Amino acid sequence: MSTSTASQIAAPAGGSFLLETRAPAEVFTPEDLTEEQRQIAATAERFTREEILPAVAPIEAKEPGAMAKLLRKAAELGFTAVEIPEEYGGLGMDKITSTVITDHVSVLASFSTAFGAHVGIGTLPLAWYGTEEQKQRYLPKLATCEWIGAYGLSEASSGSDAMNIRTRAALAPDGSGYILNGEKHWITNGGTAGLFTVFAKIDGEKFSAFLVERETPGLSVGAEEHKLGIRGSSTCALVFQDCKVPRENLLGEAGKGHHIAFNVLNMGRFKLGVACVGGARHAVGEMIRYARQRQAFGKAIAEMGLIQKKIALSAARLFAAESMAYRTAGMLEQSLAELRAGKSDGTKAKIDVPRTIGEYAVECSILKVYGSEMLSFVADELVATMGGYGYVEEYPAERTYRDARINRIFEGTNEINRLIISGWLMKQALSGSLPLLPAINRVMEEATAPGSFDAAGEADEPLGREAGMLAQARKIALFAAGVASQRFKLELDQQQEVMADLADMISQIYALESALVRAQKLAATGRSTAPAAAAMAGLLAEETIGPAEQAARRILAACGEGDALRTQLAILRRLARHVPADPVALIRTAARACIEIERYPLG
Fold first, then answer.
1. How distant is the alpha carbon of residue 423 from its chain centre?
2. Whole-angstrom distance between the N-terminal and C-terminal Cα of the chain?
3. Tens digit of pLDDT for each residue in 314-338?
4. Exactly one of 286, 373, 398, 411 is catalytic; which is it?
């Protein structure tokens, strides 16, 4: 699916990847970018080379004004105004273009953290929920980075448990504003922001959002935190002591702040996953370049099989995350385009952007979890490839390794997001919004019927084996979900270990299918990168089916015992049976494609 054909094929429902097989033409990939989007990507890459990388030292040293200066340079290119409507000084561009920019500027985690917080959670609450007067007053300043935005939700006692905040708001006696008291912690851009979106409970009950200007009396910004990673980004506490916020700075409705918080976090998770793709692409490039240059035992270490394995597996996981990122961006933009086109009377359609994005909450959480863990894997392999050089500050691997860890904490920890992934799908199933229960029942009936399942093996069509393994993984996940649902019923969401295993299977399915359909598309069009993509898809298939079987085994053991468990385990073995590919051949094919051009070969 290209952007030009988005209106011809209906956007798939969120979570439907678990139930339906997608054809390559239905899935947006980086190869479908328009010429304009490719030019924007090239501009972002040039900005990275000419502005971000030369500024690493002052940024990481937190030189006063260094980050703000760099953000304003990005603003001069329009990067910070992409999703702001034109009437408020923005460019009003699409979600795919926004994704392209986030991807290609994310080579230095400190910058991508500050940039992402500003254009995402720092700006979108106002863009989505602000009044006309609020938008006119603040969005132009945010578009140009005259003011930098920040998001004040987390507190010392309530990180992922956002509804448990203690910051309080009370209407002033004269009714002119709200008096805020409390503290916010770990606020990205806290030291540089001019505008904060702050969440507090009115009268201790109504969870609400407020726009708070930096110079508001009663607001004080704490000292910079000294962090393990992303040291160049600003992270401070906010303290509110009888801080009076004008009544007109209430954002959205009183008591409806949770809608703002959670809907914005969906986009925050998506953007964080995209940033992990950009960071990993840069790290894979560093890994390959070093491996080509480093000599040992009379040859470059890039010629050694175990180094090639590091390169190939890093590139394969990046391929999956990149494919998921652009697939999700395509679905978001397609859904929004369908809503815009749906207004037939010629009047301007009012698009509920956050609700539309919320339809793909599960894909956003999957991308966040998979992308952040993929980047941590790549960072670790980069350090390993560089050996001792990877462990000292003089070389970038050490910083990449430290910086990567925060991504598994940001925007809801990966543990919380795993519960969101499986919980969201089960909720959709129970509400009838997603036909998950009938699919589970079909697999359960098939699994318990006499006969056996055919093992996924060689197939005539290209990547047929991988497609068969994807189908097997779906059946394994649905079978395990069915057993767990029967055992725990409505209390399934209290079984966090089971929910996490289900989430991992679901995530791997989305990752594998996204990579597979992209590899199929490349093969069908005869691209020179098709063999590398096929090899990566093969590696990902092997990484999916084994862990899926292990996760399902744990779930079955938690749900039953005795003969019933033995029967279920026998079914699982049949579901997971497959003919393995030659991993050495796949690794060498993928690694050679990277080594020959000294970078990740796709994207």
1. 18
2. 16
3. 999 999 999 999 999 999 999 998 8
4. 411
Q: What is the H or E stretch that residue 83 is in?
A: none
Contacts of 43 (CB under 8 A, 6+ apart): 77
The pair of structure tokens assigned to 187 is 């606020």
Looking at this protein, which amino acid is placed at residue 469?
M
Q: How far apart (Å, rounded) are the C-alpha atoms in residues 358 and 342? A: 19
List the structure tokens of 287.
């890994």
Contact 269, 411 (CB under 8 A): yes
DSSP letter string over 461-522?
A: STTHHHHHHHHHHHHHHHHHHHHHHHHHGGGGGG-HHHHHHHHHHHHHHHHHHHHHHHHHHH
- HSE (side-chain half, CA atoms, 13 Å) at 364: 24
Q: In sequence order, what DSSP letters do the residues of 136-181 get, joined into one string? A: HHHHHHHHHTSS-EEEE--BTTBSS-GGG---EEEE-TTSSEEEEE
Joined together, the tokens standing for residue 58 give 């002052």
C-alpha torsion angle, residues 469, 471, 476, 482 (rounded to 10): 180
Contact predicate 520/24, CB 8 Å:
yes
Q: Is 411 considered catalytic here?
A: yes
Residue 406 DSSP one-character state = G
Is residue 458 scored above 60 in pLDDT? no
Per-residue tokens: 254: 């009183």
> pLDDT tens, 166-221?
999 999 999 999 999 999 999 999 999 999 999 999 999 999 999 999 999 999 99
With beta carbons less than 8 A apart as the criterion, state whether 189 and 115 touch: no
Domains and CATH numbers, the chain: 149-256 (2.40.110.10), 425-597 (1.20.140.10)
pLDDT tops 90 at residue 3 = no
**Looking at this protein, which amino acid is placed at residue 235?**
T
At residue 242, the 3 state secondary structure works out as strand
% pLDDT > 70, the chain: 95
